[in-house]
TrEMBL record:
One of its GO terms (molecular function) is DNA binding. GO terms for biological process: regulation of DNA-templated transcription. It is found in: Cytoplasm. Keywords: Cytoplasm, DNA-binding, Transcription, Transcription regulation. Residues 79-235 form the TACO1/YebC-like second and third domain. One of its GO terms (cellular component) is cytosol. It comes from Paenibacillus ferrarius. Residues 3-73 form the TACO1/YebC-like N-terminal domain. Its main location: cytoplasm. This is Probable transcriptional regulatory protein BC351_23645. Belongs to the TACO1 family. YeeN subfamily.
């Protein structure tokens, strides 16, 4: 699991360098989640998950409030959640999650990003089967034994615990995300290095230097697209 955490760290570090773009993406994701049900995170699980993730990226409260207020209004904007799958250089696998109000525009943009950067789009299911949806929560300032004892006392099941770079990483089934997080909050742990449901590759691959450079350009091109919310891959 350690390599998987490194991939998440690198993704977060990259996004932290583009805060305005990331805040805009979170604003849209929060708006869409709030429109799905009640604009109250305690009554809307999808919204609560997005807000927990936004907190780890330090999204300003003003952006969150503005998105929720917009969802409460009479806006008739309709967005679809679409997933694209494809391959990068040397057979690297990529999943692209999008929110769009123009499917043709998004499909064309994603396809172009792949084709211009040494990759190609795949059909639905061509890549996703090699990834697992996983709840990931990172905690600093606690030992792995402390976290294990806490989870045992709360009777919460997890897939794995890994201590790395002074952070205890908890991997669990997506359905356990709230149960795991609530068990920590009840124990007084309210700050998390990461708290999200993500897609983790079952097997990671290494690329030769040239392939890595091209792959990085592909990921950057995809993440720069307005409609793209998250990009997952299996490259170390």
């Amino acid at each position: 699991m350690g390599r998987k955490w490194n991939n998440i760290k690198e993704k977060k570090a990259s996004k932290d360098a583009n805060t305005s773009r990331i805040y805009a993406k979170f604003g849209l994701e929060i708006y869409v989640a709030a429109r799905k049900g009640e604009p109250d995170p305690e009554a809307n699980r999808a919204l609560k998950v997005v807000l927990e993730r936004a907190k780890t990226y330090n999204v300003p409260k003003a952006i969150i409030d503005r998105a929720i207020d917009k969802a409460k209004g009479s806006s008739d904007e309709i967005y679809e959640e679409l997933r694209y799958e494809g391959f990068g250089p040397n057979g690297a696998m990529v999943i692209v999650d999008t929110l769009t109000n123009n499917v043709n525009r998004t499909a064309s943009s994603v396809r172009a990003a792949f084709s211009k950067n040494g990759g190609n789009m795949g059909v639905n299911g061509s890549v996703a089967y090699m990834f697992d949806a996983t709840a990931v929560i990172g905690i600093e300032g606690k030992s792995i034994d402390d976290i294990m004892e806490l989870l045992l006392e709360a009777d919460v099941d997890v897939r794995d615990l890994v201590e790395e770079d002074e952070i205890v990483m908890v991997y669990a089934d997506p359905e356990q995300f709230h149960a795991v997080q609530e068990s920590f909050k009840k124990a007084g742990i309210t700050e998390f290095s990461i708290a999200e449901v993500t897609m983790l590759a079952q097997n990671n691959v290494s690329l030769p230097e040239e392939g890595q450079v091209q792959f990085d350009k592909l990921i950057d091109a995809l993440e720069d697209l307005e409609d793209v919310q998250q990009v997952f891959h299996n490259v170390e």
